[in-house]
Design goal:
The structure holds 2 protein chains of 2 kinds.
Chain A (H helix, E strand, L loop, with lengths): L6 H23 L2 H22 L5 H19 L3 H22 L8 H8 L6 H11 L5 H8 L3 H17 L12 H20 L12 H15 L4 H15 L24 H15 L6 H14 L8 H14 L3 H15 L1 H9 L11 H13 L3 H13 L4 H13 L4
Helix pairs in contact in A: 1-2, 1-3, 1-5, 2-3, 3-4, 6-8, 6-9, 7-8, 9-10, 9-11, 10-11, 11-12, 11-13, 12-13, 13-14, 14-15, 15-16, 16-17, 17-18, 18-19
Chain B lengths: L1 E8 L1 H5 L5 H19 L4 E5 L7 E6 L2 E6 L8 E9 L3 H8 L3 H5 L1 E6 L4
The chains are: A mainly alpha, B alpha+beta.
């Protein structure tokens, strides 16, 4: 049954299918840029045809067929040498594409290949994030620019540069061999987690009218889990995102100020999402192949289970951080462990642990180091030290909500 | 696609004298690498460069020849040789590069070759 679509319907249909369709076209034509042009052309055509004739029964198949036809036309039409080369190379693939147009019932899922391409270690880290959002997430260049607080032109440049590198350096559209899978999967997961964290706590500016990257990251991780159901770290990352996300409603109060974990109104946590996250985490842990994301999810789970900060099993959290440190030694993990230790055994012991962090100098420009120390000084009534540390944290903060939070903390120190 | 795998190493890598067990062990790794290429049917060409101490560097500036003795004092790692391999994609080139002893002791730069 055909229905007449509004712009909004077309947009959401396109977004739902974008990554999947683009992946098929990219694998088929082995050129991401070319594939995207073709798909974009199909979207433009949908915007004129669908309102007149209604949304086809299988819109994804319609888009794919239209994109393939447009790609083939394009290859035939162009006269330049460069494209002629492409024509020779893709002649066989065109034949395959033409026959595929006739039997389009089952649309294969090639997104796994595409995600490994977009998160290839040969690409710059920022480029991986942007490319993943564009190709798999189907976000527009303008969406990405707003989400990452970048100029739209810069985002466009990064995307085309990355696409060129994929083509010219021969970065393949294929899933890595089994021996290469663990490091390559790590690269993919870290891109997804970067996207999530950029959404969870924007590193600069105000949080108005920005596409929600945290939700986008969760959606992409869901997709990846569907594609790699037996990789516990993928499942662990999804659990971690959900368990953090569930606590998000309580992180900001009515006036937009940040609220610390200890002071959060835990009734505002999303219980259904916590339950989801817990179930997913248990599935991951059942594999008995623990990894950093599973451990972090377990830490988040301990918080989610506690009725209050005081009632939290801080010793278990310290233990989990010890485990995490053995897998990924890092001063940031040590800092988090020290903060948990302060809760378990007192501010003094926590401060000593912070001072004893290996490679602590790497944290000097890390704002949470200073705000954490400030907080512990405050508890020990060392007001001057607390003030100095809060001010240092303030200097290092670009996010407005966080600045307001620190200013509030400074004011509450009062002093004589 | 063809890729050049450029092998970079510090002086030590060039100073290992032939005939020593270290030298033989190193050579065995290259032999193993080339055997792997042959068995996998990967086309390759390669050259080994002599010691960087034997290098001379020429620059023409305003028509004037400026010669200097190698090696470049500012660079720590020197090109010691290369392989050109023909493989389907960058992933295979990376996998091959990881098999070379230079990846452990120095660095292997992987560059696609422009085909005209």
């Amino acid at each position: 049954m055909h229905t007449t679509p509004g712009d909004h319907t077309i947009e959401s249909i396109v977004r739902d299918h974008w990554g999947r369709l683009l992946a098929i076209l990219a694998v088929q034509f082995r050129d991401l840029d070319f594939a995207e042009d073709a798909l974009q052309e199909a979207v433009v055509r949908a915007a004129t045809v669908w309102p007149e004739r209604g949304v086809p029964e299988n819109p994804a198949a319609w888009l794919l067929t239209t994109a393939r036809r447009s790609a083939i036309d394009d290859i035939r039409r162009v006269q330049t040498l460069e494209r002629k080369r492409l024509l020779l190379e893709t002649d066989a693939r065109i034949a395959a594409a033409e026959s595929a147009i006739e039997l389009d019932d089952a649309i294969p899922d090639e997104r796994l290949r595409l995600i490994f391409t977009c998160c290839h270690p040969a690409l710059h880290r920022d480029a991986r994030v942007i490319l993943t959002l564009r190709t798999l997430g189907g976000l527009t260049t303008a969406d990405i620019a707003r989400a990452l607080l970048m100029e739209e032109a810069t985002v466009g440049q990064r995307i085309s540069r990355a696409k060129r590198k994929i083509r010219d350096a021969g970065i393949p559209f294929q899933t890595p061999q089994l021996a290469d899978l663990p490091p390559r999967l790590d690269a993919v997961l870290s891109v997804l987690y970067l996207i999530y964290n950029e959404g969870y706590l924007a590193s600069g500016g105000q949080s108005v009218d920005r596409p929600d990257l945290a939700i986008e990251a969760i959606r992409l991780t869901h997709i990846l889990r569907g594609l790699l159901p037996d990789e516990p770290e993928v499942t662990g990352l999804l659990a971690l995102m959900l368990l953090n996300q569930a606590r998000r409603p309580a992180r900001v109060d009515a006036s937009g100020k940040l609220v610390t974990l200890a002071e959060q109104d835990r009734r505002r946590w999303d219980r259904a999402m916590i339950a989801d996250g817990m179930t997913i985490l248990e599935t991951a842990l059942r594999n008995r192949r623990a990894g950093p994301y599973q451990i972090q999810a377990a830490i988040s789970a301990v918080h989610c289970e506690a009725a209050s900060s005081e009632a939290t099993d801080w010793r278990q959290i310290v233990g989990l951080y010890d485990l995490l440190l053995r897998m990924v030694p890092s001063p940031i993990v040590e800092l988090n462990r020290a903060i948990a230790l302060a809760e378990a055994e007192g501010a003094e012991i926590g401060l000593n642990a912070i001072d004893g962090i290996d490679r602590r100098e790497e944290l000097e420009s890390y704002r949470f180091l200073h705000s954490s120390r400030a907080d512990l000084f405050r508890r020990l009534d060392r007001i001057d030290d607390a003030e100095t540390a809060y001010r240092r944290a303030l200097e290092l903060t670009e996010n407005d909500a966080e600045r307001a939070f620190l200013v509030g903390k400074l004011a509450s120190l009062g002093g004589p | 696609m063809r890729y050049m795998l450029m092998l970079f190493g510090d002086f030590e890598a060039f100073d290992t004298p032939p005939g020593t067990p270290e030298f033989d062990a190193l050579m065995a790794e290259y032999v193993a690498f080339e055997t792997h290429l042959a068995e996998a049917g990967i086309e390759q060409t390669s050259e080994q460069l002599d010691h960087p101490k034997l290098a001379h560097v020429l620059r023409l500036r305003n028509g004037e020849r400026l010669m200097s003795d190698g090696p470049f004092p500012e660079s720590k790692e020197h090109l010691g040789g290369y392989y050109i391999v023909d493989v389907p994609s960058l992933d295979e080139a990376i996998r091959l590069a990881a098999m070379l002893p230079d990846a452990k002791s120095g660095a292997v730069e992987i560059r696609p070759i422009i085909e005209h």
